[in-house]
Structure formats: structure tokens, C-alpha cells
Amino acid sequence: MYTNADDGNGQQLYPEIPPALTTRYAAQVWRAWGGVFIFAMLISLVAYGIALTGAIISIDEEIHSGRTGATIQWIAQDRWGMYLLNWLLLPNPVLPFLPLVVGLFANATAATVAVSLWCTSKATPREYLAAAFIVITPVSAFVHQFDTSQYGFFIGVLASVLSVKLFVNATIRSRLLGLVLLVFAISVYQAVALVAVVSYLVWFLGKGILQEVHLNTPKRLIINGLLFGAWLITGAVLHKLSALLTRTLFTNGDGYSLVDGLYDGELPRKSNAFFNTIKEYFWAGMWPMGWQTTVLVSIAALATIVVIVSNHKRNNQFKLLGIAAMFGIFVSPFLLVILTSFPWPTRTMLGIPFAIAGLVWIGLACKALLLRWALVLASIVCSWHYVESINRLMYSDLLSWQHDHDVALQLQEHIITERGTDSGDFRIIVIGAYTPPATPAIRRIETIGASIFEWDRGNPYRVAAILKFLGSDEASGPSLPGDIETALGVFPSMPMWPIDGSVKSVGDVVIVKFGDPTHPQQALFKKHGLN
Length: 531
Description:
- By secondary structure, the chain is mainly α.
- It has two domains: 49-367, no CATH class; 400-527, no CATH class.
- 60% of the residues lie in helices and 3% in strands.
- A four-stranded mixed β-sheet has the order 2-1-4-3, with helices on both faces.
- α9 (172-188) crosses α11 (218-250) and α14 (290-309) runs antiparallel to α18.
- The longest helix has 51 residues, at 369-419.
């Protein structure tokens, strides 16, 4: 029976590895791809090294800093794989240095596995460049910022790529093992499923169509694509079943509304979400991606079309499938947006680095010398822009934390002035949201560069957590709705932060007035019948 494991001429591309040769095989793999991994790690350190030079508290770390052991919240969010990693690797992940290093290592390994999946021979400069784009496209910075989870998310990315590598092996055993890895990957972070889709489509185009291996007819290509789709959907269904089971056994929560909404189709819908998202990432809408991305993707797409059309050994059916695959590579990172019409945050767009890397990798096979050199030049310019963007993002986070640290200390001083040093436990409630002054050095986009004091538009539980982190063990979040009623009777006469009187103590309640009530705060007031 013909399988994907041979090239159509009876030659196995992925032969079974005898146990006695495992060590020798591993040495051969390292000789072939170790250089790509080392290069990917080195360029990662250039891009993210600033985050290794100083300890900061990034988003959610102020909450996790008060906990020990694996966080059961991951199971409540249908991410039992992340809980498992939290339990096995980093039970207390509020640490500098280590989570980032693990994340960089996993992402560099994923990049190496991806280019080895796409390539049929040893690594060439094409594979090195593709691996670089996987690790330095600024989308990854929005994942790396979450120090309490990013190491796990990139392990999920690695598991996702490995699952595709096992799928294309075409044996029943390898596909079943790949399915297990896929379910685990999705259970770490649901968005990593997009990495599997993109990785497969690049393989489908690069090997199945252009390199004439594995699948010799359009019918076999289509069947293989349908099998992959069924395999992927099976993985998503198994993930949901396993998530429901673990949630039932270990938590009393109702799940994560955003994740559940993805399955039941009840997410808020915005009809223009897809086009706006495409514009943000590929048409210079978001400054970390920049106009350089627009130029690079345009040239890469043109070069890829030329590669497909100029392949004289393939008929028009193959070429049409090739164009469709290229379109799929371009669109599949945005499948969450397409399926839900919902503008998902950048950290969910993990397929974008693989899509850019795949298009550049295929485009560099173009025989048109001028077009190929234009793509090389665009790649160099874009790579430099990406490294610069990531450094700006990481530096913004560092400066933002330093500013938050100073504000938190100043807030502690106000509270001590109001309550004294031995006044016991207190509950803090925040009115308004603190917005730090804008500076050229702090570039703000989504959660990066933002202040802990303004997240969620003034979240008193986060403010209490950051005070606890800095030593105010007596602080806690408000008791609802009683503390809100107390604050509503006091705050109208209070001045704005940081003027004296902007922090007021009433019994065991501390009211901090950063400004006028925000929309989330007003909604909370109305929910409890308070105005």
C-alpha cells in the first residue's frame, strides 16, 4: 500500500529506527540540524536578551506571586496541559530568567523541527532564515511577556509541530502518537493548533507539490489534506472532552468563557474583525510588524507564485492546489478570527511567524534571480526591524514595571499616612484607573508597556496583589458590595491621585481615587444596584 512514508519509488523517507541505532541516529540529526538550533537560540538571545538582564513583574505575575504550587486555574480554563507543566517544571513560575530561557529553548527547537519537516535534505541558508523568522517575528514577544505561562505555551508550540511531523510519517502508529501530542499541545494553549495548520500547509506545498515527493497525484494530495483536517478536528474534540473531564474532576468552575465561546459559537461577533486583523499584521497597522512586513510578505507571495507556476513538471491541477495551499498559509493563522468574527489578542496569533517563515522559505526557491535577491534584501531589512521592535517592546515592559514599582511604593506611603503602621488588615478599592505618562521610551501596545494599575481599567485585586508583592501583607481586594457602597459615599469629594487626600481610609476600607469611575467599574456598581 502506498503511504506518505515513501517517495513513490519504493524508497522510504522516514525508515524505522532500530533501537541499537538510536544514539547514532540522534548524532546524525544533530549534525544535520544542530547548527539551525544554535543559530535560532543565538538570534533569540539578541532579540530577547534585554528581558534576561533585569527582573520585572509582568502581567498576571502580581497575582501568581501570592500562590505556591501548580495553579488549578489552568484546569478551569481547559488548559490541563499547562497545569501539568506547571506542576512538573515550574511549580512557582514567578521567577526571573528561567521561564524565558525555557520558552526560548522550546521555540528554537520548534523552529528547527519545522524547517526539518519542510526540507528534504540538510540545512541550507534558506532553512536558517526560515528558523530566524519563526523566533523573531514580534508576535512571539506578546507570548514571552507572560512569564507565568510563556514557557508552557512554547512547549505547546513545539508539541504542535512535532505532531505534524508524526502525521506526515503516515504510519498508523506515528499518527496516533501525533494525535496524542496534538491534544496535549491544545490543552496547553488552544491557539497552538494554528501552528499545526500552518506547518502542515507549508509541508503540503513545499514537498507534496513542489518537490514531488510523497504524493504523486492531485487526488492523493486532496485525500491527504482531508485526512489532516479530520485528524486536526479529532484532536480538538478529544481536547474538549479531556478538558471537560479534568474540569469536572478537579474544579468547581464553569470554565473559561472565551474558550467555551470558541466551541459553542457564542463569542461576540464583529463583522469586520478578519479584515481589520489582517490589516494590523500584514499591512503596517501594528508598528512592531511595520511596513517591512508588508514588503516582505508581498515579495514572498509573488516569488511563491512564480515557483508554483514555473514548475513545468506539474500540471495545472497541481498548480491550482499550490495556489490554494499558499492562500491557506496566508489565512490559517487567523482561523480563530474567521471562525468567531472576534478580534483575538496578538498572543493567539502564533501561526503568523510560521506562515512568514514558510512563505519566505518557499519563495527563496524562485529561479528568477532579481526576485530572489529582492526577497533576500527584504528579509534582512525585516529581520533587523523585528529585532529592534522586540527590544523596544521588552524595554518598554522593563521601564513600565520600574514606574509601577515607584507608584506602588508611593501608594504604600499614602496608606501608612492614613492608617499608621500597626492598623491591621485592610481592603482596597480603586476608583478610576491610573494611566502613566507617555514617554518615547515606553511603547505601549496591548498589555506590553501598560501599567498594572490600569489593567482591566482599574482592578483593585491586582492593586492589592502588587502591594502584597512589595510587602503589604495586610492588603486584600474589596468585599462586594459593601466596600463599593462605602467608596461611593466618599470618593466624590476626594482629589485625584497623587494629591494628598487621594487615598482615604474608612474603617478597614482604603479608597484610592485615580480618576473618574471607568466603564467596567460603573458596570460593577450597577450590577450591585449602586450608583
